[in-house]
C-alpha cells in the first residue's frame, strides 16, 4: 500500500510540473492512460478532486495545489537521498574502513599511507589490524587485505599475490646449534612456529627434484604473529620459517643466514583483497586497491630479497 501511495505521488508531481498528461507520461516513460489512471485512483483514495480537466484545459483544484506541495517535497527527498548515496560512494571523500593482517599492513600498507593521503586528501582511512578470520559485515569494513587459504563466501575476493617462505636463522644461533643441511635435520633444532586458534604451522614442507618432505617441527616458542617470529629469529632464538614479505636487508647485512637454499619451501599463503559485492565498486575502494597493487608490484617486490 505504501509503495502504491508513493508511486501515485510521483505521478502527480510529474503531472503538476508538466501541466500535461501526455508530457507527464513521456517524462515517466509510461502511457498517458497510466498517468490518468494513477491520478484517478489517487483522487478516489483521498476522496477529493485534485485536477480539473477538459479536452482542452488542465488546472489544479485548491486541494490539488496544496497536495502538489507535499508531493514535490517527497520527490525532492527521494532525489536528494539517492544523490547523497551516489556521491558518497562515488567520491573520494568520507571514511574508508580497511582491515588487514597485522604484519602485512605494518610492512606494506602503513609506510605508504602518507602518500595515499597526499593523493586523496579528503579521504580518511580507518585501519583495523587483526589476523583472525574476517567478517566484513560485523567489522563494518569496506575492504580487507590479508593472507587466507579460504576467502569468505559471499564476497568478492581478488587474488593479489602468493606469499612465499624462506628458512633462516641468525649467525649466533647457527654458531651454537650447527647448520641443518637437510629438512630432517630440523628435528634437532629449536624451530619457532606460528600458532593461533585458526592455524598451527608445525608441519614445514620442502621440495627438491620431485622429492617432497613434510617435517613436523617443534621448539620452545610458539606465537601468533609473523613479526614476532622474525624478531625471535633475528635474536638467535631458533630457526624461522619466514614469510618473505617480512624481509628487507637481513640477508644482505648478515643478520640472517638462509638455510637449505637447494630446497624449495612449498608452503605459500595467497594474498587477497576482499570486499562486499557491489554493482558498482565505490571509487574510494577501487583507489585504495589500485594504490596497494601499485606498491607491491607484479611480481611482488619483496621476493627480490631472495
Description of the molecule:
There is one protein chain. The protein is an alpha/beta fold. It folds into three domains: 88 residues, Winged helix-like DNA-binding domain superfamily/Winged helix DNA-binding domain (Arc Repressor Mutant, subunit A); 99 residues, Periplasmic binding protein-like II (D-Maltodextrin-Binding Protein, domain 2, 3-Layer(aba) Sandwich); 107 residues, Periplasmic binding protein-like II (D-Maltodextrin-Binding Protein, domain 2). The chain has ten helices and 14 strands. The strands form three sheets. Strands 3, 4, 5, 6, 7, 10, 11, 12 and 14 form a nine-stranded mixed β-sheet that branches. A three-stranded antiparallel β-sheet has the order 9-8-13, with no helix packed on it. Helix 2 crosses helix 3. The radius of gyration is 32 Å and the shape is rod-shaped.
Characteristic terms for this protein:
alpha/beta, nine-stranded mixed sheet, D-Maltodextrin-Binding Protein, domain 2, Arc Repressor Mutant, subunit A, 306 residues
Distance between the termini: 67 Å
Number of strands: 14
Name of the CATH homologous superfamily of the largest domain: Periplasmic binding protein-like II
- The total tally of domains equals 3
Q: Give the radius of gyration.
A: 32 Å
Determine the CATH topology of the largest domain: D-Maltodextrin-Binding Protein, domain 2
Shape: rod-shaped
Mean pLDDT: 88
GO molecular function: DNA-binding transcription factor activity; sequence-specific DNA binding
Organism: Photobacterium gaetbulicola Gung47
InterPro entries: LysR-type_TF_proteobact-type, LysR_HTH_N, LysR_subst-bd, WH-like_DNA-bd_sf, WH_DNA-bd_sf
Pfam family, one: HTH_1
Amino acid at each position: 500500500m505504501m509503495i502504491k501511495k508513493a508511486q501515485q505521488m510521483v505521478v502527480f508531481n510529474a503531472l503538476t510540473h508538466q501541466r500535461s498528461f501526455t508530457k507527464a507520461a513521456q517524462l515517466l516513460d509510461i502511457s498517458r492512460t497510466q498517468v490518468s489512471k494513477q491520478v484517478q485512483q489517487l483522487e478516489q483514495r483521498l476522496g477529493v478532486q485534485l485536477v480539473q480537466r477538459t479536452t482542452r484545459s488542465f488546472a489544479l483544484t485548491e486541494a490539488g495545489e496544496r497536495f502538489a506541495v507535499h508531493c514535490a517535497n517527497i520527490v525532492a527527498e527521494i532525489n536528494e537521498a539517492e544523490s547523497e548515496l551516489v556521491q558518497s560512494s562515488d567520491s573520494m571523500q568520507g571514511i574508508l574502513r580497511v582491515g588487514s593482517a597485522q604484519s602485512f599492513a605494518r610492512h606494506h600498507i602503513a609506510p605508504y599511507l602518507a602518500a595515499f593521503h597526499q593523493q586523496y586528501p579528503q579521504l580518511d582511512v580507518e585501519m583495523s589490524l587483526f589476523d583472525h578470520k574476517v567478517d566484513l559485515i560485523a567489522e563494518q569494513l569496506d575492504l580487507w587485505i590479508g593472507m587466507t587459504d579460504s576467502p569468505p563466501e559471499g564476497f568478492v575476493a581478488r587474488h593479489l599475490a602468493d606469499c612465499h617462505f624462506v628458512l633462516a636463522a641468525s649467525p649466533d644461533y647457527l654458531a651454537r646449534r650447527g647448520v641443518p643441511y637437510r629438512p630432517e635435520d630440523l628435528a634437532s633444532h629449536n624451530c619457532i612456529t606460528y600458532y593461533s586458534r585458526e592455524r598451527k604451522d608445525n608441519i614445514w614442507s620442502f621440495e627438491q627434484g620431485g622429492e617432497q618432505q613434510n617435517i613436523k617441527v617443534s621448539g620452545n616458542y610458539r606465537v601468533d604473529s609473523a613479526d614476532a617470529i622474525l624478531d625471535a629469529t633475528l635474536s638467535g632464538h631458533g630457526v624461522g620459517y619466514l614469510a618473505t614479505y617480512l624481509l628487507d636487508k637481513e640477508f644482505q647485512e648478515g643478520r640472517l643466514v638462509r638455510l637449505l637454499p637447494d630446497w624449495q619451501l612449498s608452503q605459500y599463503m595467497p594474498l587477497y583483497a576482499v570486499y562486499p559485492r557491489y554493482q558498482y565498486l565505490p571509487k574510494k575502494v577501487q583507489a585504495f586497491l589500485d594504490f596497494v597493487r601499485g606498491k607491491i608490484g607484479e611480481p611482488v617486490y619483496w621476493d627480490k630479497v631472495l
